[in-house]
Amino acid sequence: MIKEWATVVSWQNGVALVSCDVKAACGSCASRAGCGSRVLNKLGPQTTHTLQVPSEQPLVAGQKVELGIAEGSLLGSAMLVYLTPLAGLFVLGGLFQMLFGTDLAAMCGAALGGVGGFLLARGYSQRLADREAWQPVILNVALAPDQLRVESLSSEAR
């Protein structure tokens, strides 16, 4: 189970709307200049993801929850997203090369196969998203923000 903490945005009728922060590149390894994660994090302006998660327990805005998702579903979705366009690229590129015998035809077939594989993955991922095993679940619930109070004594009171 892969776990991540999220913040509750709202809760209504047994469904919690939670927000997860996108992890920035860590910057602790030596390959900062060639790190693909670092480059991808800089490209997108999105810094949070919002998810709807079923929760029978009432939650309040600002409360932290620990979400979990099965490794199998995460690996399956990653394979679908990355391997389907790659397989389409190779299959149609090879097929066009055999049929037409030119590099230009192979390049066009590869482009069509890659785009077709992407569209196939996009359509199939909608069906997979409805499966219960592929949905994130709430594992732990932290205290509500108004239930925790921290008091510190000033230096004058000591």
From TrEMBL:
<feature type="transmembrane region" description="Helical">
    <location>
        <begin position="74"/>
        <end position="98"/>
    </location>
</feature>
<keyword id="KW-0812">Transmembrane</keyword>
<dbReference type="InterPro" id="IPR007359">
    <property type="entry name" value="SigmaE_reg_RseC_MucC"/>
</dbReference>
<dbReference type="InterPro" id="IPR026268">
    <property type="entry name" value="RseC"/>
</dbReference>
<keyword id="KW-1133">Transmembrane helix</keyword>
<dbReference type="Pfam" id="PF04246">
    <property type="entry name" value="RseC_MucC"/>
</dbReference>
<keyword id="KW-0472">Membrane</keyword>
<feature type="transmembrane region" description="Helical">
    <location>
        <begin position="104"/>
        <end position="121"/>
    </location>
</feature>
<protein>
    <submittedName>
        <fullName>SoxR-reducing system protein RseC</fullName>
    </submittedName>
</protein>
